Amino acid sequence: MSEKKLPSYGGQALIEGVLMRGSNHVVASMRAPDGHIEVIHEELGGIYKSWIKKVPVLRGLLVLWDSLGLGMRFLTMSANIQTGEDEKIEGPQMVLTLLASFGIAILFFFIAPAWIAQIIENKLNLAQWVSNTFEGLLRLAVVVAYMVLVSRMEEIKRVFRYHGAEHKTINAFDQGLEITIENVREQSRLHPRCGTAFMVTVVIISIVLFIIIGPFTNTLAARLISRILLIPVIAGVSYEYIQWSARHLKNPFVKFLYYPNLMVQKITTADPDDSMLECAINSFNIMIDYENRKEEDFALK
């Protein structure tokens, strides 16, 4: 008899809190300044209900939306709870904020390394595959340097501890344990289906892909355009690789290949205290409760 496959739940660290996302519901638990836990629940719709979630590669776009759309909105909510303000990011303001954030990320992580690599290729007359490899390594250095720099900020240090709490909670669930503070506390703060691992995988996949298409992008314009247009493809392939790897980590070869993705999480996670674990566990248990309810249960409310 085959082992029952557990759902792949995900989450995100917030400011003094943790968000947990299921297939149909998202729940965030955030510690207010007076010590109580503020809970926000939403039923997922839109792209989460569309045909995209069932199509390999394309469903990787959900990861981008989690980080940009859903993640930014809940980060704003968590910040508001700490300040007592009620500022909302929605409508045109939400779109402009997302576009600005996405544009800055593309500029620093894709355009700048490609531009610098093209200049060096022209100056030193490098082979294109050498130039593309240098570009990828430069992109990886930028990503890691960014993680290290933000990890030194006091506010971010606490966010990274909540990140650890999120991972520990999901690790406990993946192992079939009861989600209690005692069980969760003993888990690893590293998890294979992590946003940090996703970022590193995106960089590695981009190195391979850009070397392959190198002969077709031998001008600066072609190089820059390809880097932008292929972001959804790279994100989709990276998502599938992470999901596949997470299911096969018992294989020594897969574990060896995935090792760098786990190690880089030591930058973006830290050990949480019990109050942080409480937020993560609260989010997870409430999310699971909503996920397990039947449609008629909601109709009665």
Automatic annotation (TrEMBL):
Transmembrane domains' residue ranges: 95-116, 136-153, 195-214, 220-242
Keyword set, alphabetical order: Membrane, Transmembrane, Transmembrane helix
Source organism of the structure: Flexilinea flocculi
Protein name listed in UniProt: Uncharacterized conserved protein YqhQ
Keyword Transmembrane helix: yes
InterPro entries listed in its UniProt record: DUF1385
